[in-house]
Task: inverse folding
């Protein structure tokens, strides 16, 4: 009982830290976008955590952890698909459920993760997507797509069976969000003024870099829970090495992105530095418990470079990602997942191929799902704000509000 | 009476304020202004270069009696000077009348 208490307390602390990440995402996204859309992007972030928790309680949790699979592939949903219920009469609060945590802690910890995938999309599509369309998409994505992908690995599905490894979700959380973001910005098109008539990329600077900085520090803090909690118990050696690798990768990712971007563009770009930290964190997430400290630093260093070139690649593809979500969550998510086959205690060519298979299968499923959902929304409700609304700002047109009411109008 | 308006560098504002307070000037108004010129300043944001022709300056405005005009202008000329392009400009225009609302004084008396 003492073991359960200790484990369960740690898991609840981690749950709270992952919850706090939603503030980090909010601040990062609002800081890297323009004043005239500040309310809109905050509204989306607030909506996602609320809707994400509710839908996870209604459907997502049981969809992700079905308990058994038919023929090893199709989750057996016929029992207890909807709603939260303890799986056994008195077992939900003791070691009969799990040695690491109770049933209720399990739900809440996983529920905090679920909303993250949609939050990633929200930054990428910022400043031009219709609020209603985004809310509909994110609800469908986190209620159905995220749990199905999660069930294949964490729910004991076929990817788990073939030996695919993703400790805390470089692929299962971050790439799932990143693929959704990529498809969404492709279907949505770039913000007005992002690309000139000659195809030249224009800078649209974010309006509050101090808030974005606070957001990244909060996300880093949240990652203590994201990775530390993914140990799924308070195991002393595993939790401590996990936090060490997590922080070293974050630091290395930041330094690497700052150095690469400074060499490439001849300026000390803080936003690249910040993205680099997040890239390092996403990169280490797949193997945070497998890596030595030096492996973690190497993974972070590569992730920092991936960020700088990822941001520039997205630009060259004429895609518009105001906050760098695709580079951070998709590119570094893929890198981190593959890194499990390159560094650490599971490294090996076969493992690398397995990791690659997992990335490919999940990528295909997410791209197809996001494409179908978004295309249907585009054909029915429409995805994008009118040109006039986008120019004058989503805050005034979607919300009739001003984020900084006493500092003058945000309209330009 | 004359109105003196000066567009100065924000970085020289404290110097100008201090120098003016050491002369006869007890009070003046100021606000931030943005100018647009042919000079461009290069920036880089997330790997994309862009330039802006917006120039941030501060504008100060004060009304002084005729015999203080020269000394006030001299003070601003000295305090706002760096010698580089973009130090700003000073404009002097006549003022027909001035009133102090509290006492209903008019003319030079209302300025002190």
Result:
């Amino acid at each position: 009982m003492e073991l359960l208490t200790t484990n369960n307390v740690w898991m609840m602390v981690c749950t709270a830290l992952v919850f706090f990440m939603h503030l980090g995402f909010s601040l990062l996204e609002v800081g890297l976008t323009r004043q005239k859309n500040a309310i809109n992007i905050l509204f989306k972030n607030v909506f996602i955590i609320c809707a994400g928790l509710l839908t996870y309680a209604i459907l997502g949790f049981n969809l992700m952890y079905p308990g058994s699979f038919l023929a090893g592939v199709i989750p057996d949903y016929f029992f207890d698909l909807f709603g939260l219920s303890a799986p056994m009469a008195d077992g939900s609060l003791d070691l009969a459920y799990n040695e690491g945590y109770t049933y209720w802690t399990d739900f809440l910890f996983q529920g905090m993760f679920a909303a993250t995938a949609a939050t990633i999309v929200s930054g990428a599509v910022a400043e031009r997507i219709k609020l209603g369309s985004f809310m509909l998409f994110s609800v469908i994505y986190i209620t159905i797509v995220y749990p199905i992908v999660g069930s294949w690995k964490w729910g004991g599905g076929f990817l788990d069976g073939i030996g695919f490894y993703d400790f805390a979700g470089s692929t299962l959380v971050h790439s799932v969000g990143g693929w959704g973001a990529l498809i969404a910005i492709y279907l949505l098109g770039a913000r007005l003024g992002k690309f000139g008539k000659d195809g030249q990329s224009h800078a649209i600077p974010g309006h509050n870099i101090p808030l974005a900085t606070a957001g990244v520090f909060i996300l880093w803090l949240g990652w203590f829970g994201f990775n530390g909690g993914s140990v799924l118990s308070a195991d002393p050696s595993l939790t401590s090495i996990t936090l060490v690798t997590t922080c070293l990768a974050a630091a290395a990712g930041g330094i690497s992105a700052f150095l690469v971007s400074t060499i490439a563009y001849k300026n000390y770009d803080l936003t690249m530095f910040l993205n680099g930290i997040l890239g390092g964190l996403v990169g280490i997430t797949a193997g945070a418990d497998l890596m030595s400290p030096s492996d973690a630093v190497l993974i972070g260093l590569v992730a920092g470079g991936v960020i700088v070139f990822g941001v520039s690649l997205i630009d060259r593809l004429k895609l518009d990602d105001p906050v760098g979500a695709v580079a951070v969550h998709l590119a570094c998510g893929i890198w981190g997942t593959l890194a499990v086959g390159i560094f650490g205690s599971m490294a090996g060519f076969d493992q690398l191929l397995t990791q690659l298979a997992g990335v490919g299968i999940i990528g295909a499923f997410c791209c197809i799902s996001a494409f179908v959902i978004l295309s249907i929304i585009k054909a029915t409700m429409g995805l994008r704000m009118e040109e006039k609304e986008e120019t004058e700002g989503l805050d005034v047109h979607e919300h009739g509000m001003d984020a900084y009411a006493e500092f003058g109008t945000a309209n330009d | 009476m004359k109105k003196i308006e000066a567009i100065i560098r924000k970085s020289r504002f404290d110097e100008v304020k201090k120098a003016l307070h050491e002369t006869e000037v007890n009070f003046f108004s100021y606000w931030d202004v943005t100018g647009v010129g042919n000079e461009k300043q290069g920036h880089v944001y997330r790997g994309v270069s862009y330039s802006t022709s917006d120039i941030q300056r501060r504008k100060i405005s004060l009304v002084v009696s005729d015999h203080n005009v020269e000394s006030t202008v001299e003070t601003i000329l000295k305090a706002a000077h760096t010698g580089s392009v973009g130090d700003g400009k000073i404009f002097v225009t006549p003022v027909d009348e001035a009133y102090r609302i509290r006492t209903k004084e008019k003319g030079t008396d209302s300025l002190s």
